[in-house]
Design brief:
The chain is of the alpha/beta class. It contains ten helices and five strands; from the N terminus they run ααβααβαβαβααβαα. A five-stranded parallel β-sheet has the order 3-4-2-1-5, sandwiched between helices.
C-alpha cells in the first residue's frame, strides 16, 4: 500500500489505511497505477504468486482484508490493466467449475475468466501458450498460470519427498512474463507503468527453503 499510494498506513492495510479510505500522498484516493491509467498510460501487473497478492493487486484493488481474495481478484480483472499475469485460477472461477489448473473456489458464481474474455483479454494458461502468441496482435492479455502460486512454497525436504519442483514446469518465468508484458504496454505512445513481483523471494524464504529462495532471487535478477 505504501508503494502504491506513497503514504504510510497501518500494518496489513490493503489499499486502505486500516479499514478507512486512503487519501494518497498526491491528495486524491487513487494509487499511482490508477493515476497512470487516468493519464492514458498502459498498465501491466506481473506476479508469480496468485492474482490477489498485495505486491501487484494493491495497485488496483482496495479491501479491508488481504484475505478476501475473491473480491480482490474481481477488482484486478476489472481494473482496466492491459496486461495481467499471475497464478490464482482458484480466485477466478466459481466453486466446482473445473479450470485448466484445478477447480474454482469462488462463492459468488462469477466466472472472471469469461468476464475477462468478454472485455477483450486474450487468455493463456501455460508458458508454451504464452511463447506461441504473436504479441504484435495482442492489446490485452491475461495469463493464468497456476491454481494458486506458480511455485511450491514449502520446505525443500517436503518438495523432495512429494516429488514437487520449486517452480511449476508449465509456468513461464518472471523474465518471460515481463518481456511479454513490456512488448504490449511499451507500444503506448503515452507511456506505461509495469508492476513486476517475484513472490517466491517472499513465500519460499518464509518456509525456510534456502535453495528455493536463491532460485527465486536468481529469477528476480533475470
Amino acid at each position: 500500500t505504501v508503494h502504491a499510494y506513497g503514504k504510510k498506513v497501518l500494518a496489513d492495510s490493503f489499499g486502505m489505511n486500516g479499514k478507512d479510505k486512503l487519501i494518497a500522498a498526491s491528495g486524491n484516493d487513487m494509487s499511482i497505477a490508477q493515476e497512470a491509467m487516468a493519464a492514458g498510460k498502459s498498465l501491466a501487473l506481473v506476479q508469480t504468486g496468485h492474482i490477489a497478492e498485495p505486491g501487484t493487486a494493491v495497485f488496483v484493488a482496495s479491501n479491508e482484508s488481504r484475505r478476501n481474495g475473491d473480491d480482490i481478484a474481481r477488482q484486478v480483472i476489472g481494473s482496466g490493466a492491459q496486461v495481467i499475469m499471475a497464478g490464482g485460477e482458484r480466485f477466478l472461477l466459481p466453486e466446482g467449475t473445473e479450470g485448466r489448473h484445478g477447480a474454482g473456489e469462488r462463492k459468488d458464481d462469477l466466472n472472471l475468466i469469461q468476464e475477462a474474455e468478454a472485455s477483450g483479454y486474450q487468455v493463456v494458461y501455460t508458458r508454451d501458450e504464452l511463447m506461441a502468441l504473436d504479441l504484435s496482435g495482442v492489446d490485452k492479455l491475461l495469463g493464468v498460470f497456476a491454481h494458486d502460486h506458480t511455485f511450491n512454497d514449502q520446505s525443500r525436504e517436503l518438495n523432495l519427498s512429494e516429488g514437487k519442483p520449486t517452480y511449476l514446469d508449465h509456468a513461464p518465468t518472471l523474465a518471460e512474463m515481463t518481456r511479454a508484458a513490456l512488448e504490449i504496454v511499451s507500444r503506448d505512445e503515452d507511456g506505461f507503468l509495469a508492476v513486476i513481483e517475484e513472490e517466491g523471494t517472499d513465500n519460499i524464504a518464509n518456509n525456510m527453503n534456502a535453495s528455493g529462495t536463491l532460485e527465486a532471487l536468481s529469477r528476480a535478477d533475470a
